[in-house]
TrEMBL record, chain A:
Protein name: TIGR02186 family protein
Segments crossing the lipid bilayer: 225-250
InterPro entries attached to this UniProt entry: CHP02186-rel_TM
Keywords per UniProt: Membrane, Signal, Transmembrane, Transmembrane helix
Signal sequence region: 1-18
UniProtKB/TrEMBL annotation, chain B:
Principal location class: membrane
Organism this protein belongs to: Sulfitobacter sediminilitoris
Subcellular location: Cell membrane; Membrane
Membrane topology: Multi-pass membrane protein
Pfam families for the chain: TauE
Entry-linked InterPro entries: TM_pro_TauE-like, TSUP/Inactive_protease-like
Full protein name: Probable membrane transporter protein
Keywords: Cell membrane, Membrane, Transmembrane, Transmembrane helix
GO CC terms, sorted: plasma membrane
Family: Belongs to the 4-toluene sulfonate uptake permease (TSUP) (TC 2.A.102) family.
Species classification: Bacteria, Pseudomonadati, Pseudomonadota, Alphaproteobacteria, Rhodobacterales
Membrane-traversing stretches: 12-39, 85-104, 110-131, 176-204, 211-230, 236-257, 269-290
C-alpha cells in the first residue's frame, strides 16, 4: 500500500519537475490612493524545462487572481400579498470579493472537470456554498445569481483566450482590476496544462493596500471611532458655517 | 474626476457627488427638510453600499442644516424655545426608535417595514398637504382671508408656555409628543424626519410656515449629529470623504434654497413640498409593486 502511494506521489510530482514556471509581475503591490480608478497588472513568464518541448498535447496557460473571501447572503424576492419582498436567503460561506480567470484557450478545453474540482479554478468552483436551509431546494440558483450579479459589475471575470503563449514557452496576460477594489492579498495562481491535466502550478500574491490619506482615514475610523465621528461632525459644522459666512458677504 | 472613498471602498465621480449634494441642499434650504429621504436612495443608485449611504447621509445633513439654520437665524425665523422642546422629545423618540428597530431586525424583514413606513407616511402626509395647500391657494385667489386658527382641545391642556417667535401660547405636551413620534420614525427610517416634522408643526401645532422651516432645521442638526456619532462608533460606516463632497454641494445649495424659499409664498412652498413627497412615495410604491429585473440581491452575511 505504502509503495503504491509512493509511486503515485512520484507520478504526481513528475510533470511539475519537468516544466516549471518562471514568473514576472508588472507590479506586486497596488496602492489605493484618493484618485484610484482601477489598475491593470501585467502577468508574464516563461516555462523552464530540462528536456525538449513535448509536441502534443499543446501547452495551455490559465491565470487566476482572487480577492479576499467573504461571507455573502443571497436573497430572493417573491410576490407576497401583491408586493415584492425578500423571502428566501442562502448564505454563501466563501465567495471571493474579486475573481478573474484568464486562459489561453477556452476554459473547458484547457482543464478537465476533475482538475477543476481539485484546484478550484472555474468561478462556480471558487465559491463555496455548503449549507442551504432545509426549505430551499434550488440552492444552485442562488450561487448562479451571485455569479451573475458579480459578473455584471465586473467583480468576476472570465477572459478566455487572453493569455498569449509563444513557442509553448513564453506567456503573458493583463488583468484589469476594477475601481471598486477592497484591500487585501490577491492570490494569483498560474497553471500550465496539457490535455486538460495540470502539469505545473505557481502561486504568488498581489498586495492591494490603501495608502496616504485613504490609509489614515480608514485606520482612524476603526481605531479611534469616537474621534473620527467628532471630526466628521466638526468638518460638517465648519463647512456649514463657512458657506453661510461666504454668502452673507456676497449679499452685502 | 474619480475619487476613491476610503470607507465605502468604491470609486465615484466627484462632480456627480457635488451635484447631488447641491440639488438636495437647495430642497433642504427651501423646505426645511434634511433631504435624507431623497439623498439616501440616490446614493444607493450610484453604487454606495447602503449602510455607508445611510450613515454618511446623516453627517451631510448636519452640514446643510447648520448652513440653512444660520441663514434663518439672520432673519429671526427660528423659534429656539419650540425647537428645544421638540428636540427633547426627538432624542427620547430616537432612543425608543433604535430599540424598536433592533426588535424588528430580530424578527427579520426590517427592510420591508422601513419601505412600507416610507410609502404610508409619505403618501398620507404628501396627500394631505397637497389638498390643503390647493384649498389655501384657491381661497387666496377668491380673495378670502385665511381661516383664523381655531381653539381646539390642544389649547385646553396644562403646562402652557409662550412661544413668542411662533406667536403661540400652548401647552408643551403636543410639541413633546410630536418630537417623540418624529424621533421614533426618524430612527426607524434612518432620516432626519423633517418631512414629517414640517407638516406636523404647521397642521398640528399651528405654527406659521416661515418659522417652521428654521425651527425644523435647528432640531434636525442635533438629531442627525447624534445619529452620525452612533453610526461612526458602532458600525464604522461614516465615510468622511463622501460626506465632504456631498456637503460642499449641500451647504451652497442650502443657502440658495433658503433665499428661494423666502421669496416664495407659503402655499406655493407647501404644495411643492407635497408634490416632491408624493413623487418619492410613488417611486417607492412602484418598487414594491412591479417585478424587479433582478430577483436576487447580495448582502453582507449577518447584516440586513
Amino acid at each position: 500500500m505504502r509503495a503504491l502511494i509512493l509511486v503515485f506521489a512520484f507520478l504526481m510530482t513528475l510533470p511539475a519537475m519537468a516544466e516549471q514556471i518562471v514568473l514576472g509581475l508588472s507590479k506586486d503591490t497596488v496602492s489605493i490612493n484618493t484618485n484610484f480608478d482601477g489598475s491593470e497588472i501585467l502577468i508574464f513568464g516563461a516555462v523552464k524545462r530540462e528536456e525538449r518541448i513535448p509536441d502534443e498535447p499543446r501547452l495551455q496557460v490559465i491565470v487566476t487572481v482572487s480577492g479576499p473571501s467573504e461571507r455573502v447572503t443571497v436573497r430572493r424576492k417573491e410576490k407576497r400579498l401583491g408586493i415584492w419582498v425578500n423571502t428566501d436567503a442562502v448564505e454563501v460561506d466563501r465567495a471571493p470579493s474579486f475573481y478573474a480567470i484568464s486562459t489561453s484557450t477556452l476554459l473547458g478545453l484547457s482543464l478537465t472537470e476533475t482538475e477543476d474540482i481539485r484546484h478550484k479554478v472555474s468561478i462556480p468552483r471558487a465559491i463555496r456554498s455548503v449549507g442551504a436551509p432545509m426549505n430551499i431546494t434550488d440552492s444552485e440558483s442562488f450561487s448562479e445569481a451571485l455569479i451573475r450579479i458579480k459578473m455584471n459589475s465586473g467583480q468576476y471575470q472570465l477572459n478566455e483566450g487572453t493569455v498569449s503563449v509563444d513557442e509553448q514557452t513564453l506567456f503573458r496576460t493583463a488583468i484589469k482590476l476594477p475601481a471598486a477594489l477592497t484591500e487585501g492579498d490577491y492570490q494569483t495562481r498560474i497553471f500550465l496544462t496539457r490535455g486538460g491535466e495540470v502539469v505545473s502550478k505557481y502561486e504568488t500574491s498581489i498586495f492591494v493596500r490603501k495608502v496616504g490619506m485613504e490609509r489614515w482615514l480608514f485606520n482612524l475610523s476603526r481605531e479611534n471611532a469616537f474621534l473620527y465621528g467628532l471630526m466628521s461632525l466638526a468638518i460638517a459644522i465648519a463647512a456649514g458655517w463657512a458657506a453661510s459666512a461666504v454668502f452673507s458677504v456676497f449679499r452685502r | 474626476m474619480q475619487i476613491y472613498l476610503p470607507i465605502a471602498e468604491v470609486s465615484v465621480n466627484a462632480f456627480l457627488l457635488l451635484g447631488l449634494g447641491g440639488l438636495v441642499g437647495v430642497l433642504s434650504g427651501m423646505f426645511g427638510v434634511g433631504g435624507g429621504f431623497l439623498m439616501t436612495p440616490l446614493l444607493f443608485f450610484i453604487g454606495i453600499p447602503p449602510a455607508v449611504a445611510v450613515a454618511t447621509e446623516a453627517n451631510q445633513i448636519v452640514a446643510s442644516s447648520f448652513s440653512g439654520v444660520l441663514a434663518h437665524f439672520k432673519r429671526k425665523t427660528v423659534d429656539l424655545r419650540m425647537g428645544t422642546v421638540l428636540l427633547i422629545g426627538g432624542l427620547i423618540g430616537a432612543a425608543l426608535g433604535v430599540m424598536v428597530f433592533n426588535y424588528l431586525k430580530s424578527l427579520g424583514q426590517v427592510d420591508l417595514l422601513v419601505k412600507l413606513c416610507y410609502v404610508v407616511f409619505l403618501g398620507v402626509i404628501g396627500g394631505l398637504m397637497f389638498l390643503e395647500s390647493l384649498r389655501a391657494i384657491r381661497n387666496v385667489k377668491k380673495g378670502k382671508a385665511p381661516a383664523r386658527k381655531k381653539h381646539n382641545w390642544i389649547h385646553g391642556l396644562p403646562l402652557k408656555m409662550r412661544f413668542r417667535v411662533s406667536g403661540l401660547y400652548i401647552s408643551v405636551i403636543p410639541p413633546l409628543i410630536v418630537g417623540v413620534t418624529v424621533g421614533i420614525l426618524a430612527a426607524i427610517m434612518g432620516v432626519g424626519g423633517g418631512f414629517i416634522m414640517v407638516p406636523a408643526m404647521i397642521y398640528l401645532l399651528g405654527m406659521p410656515t416661515k418659522v417652521v422651516v428654521g425651527t425644523s432645521l435647528f432640531q434636525i442638526i442635533f438629531v442627525t449629529a447624534f445619529t452620525t456619532m452612533l453610526h461612526a462608533t458602532t458600525n464604522y460606516t461614516v465615510d468622511v470623504v463622501l460626506a465632504v463632497l456631498l456637503l460642499v454641494g449641500g451647504v451652497i445649495g442650502a443657502q440658495i434654497g433658503t433665499r428661494i424659499g423666502v421669496k416664495m409664498k407659503a402655499e406655493q412652498l407647501r404644495i411643492l413640498l407635497a408634490i416632491m413627497v408624493l413623487a418619492v412615495c410613488g417611486k417607492l410604491a412602484l418598487d414594491l409593486l412591479l417585478q424587479p429585473t433582478e430577483l436576487y440581491s447580495l448582502g453582507a452575511a449577518g447584516g440586513h
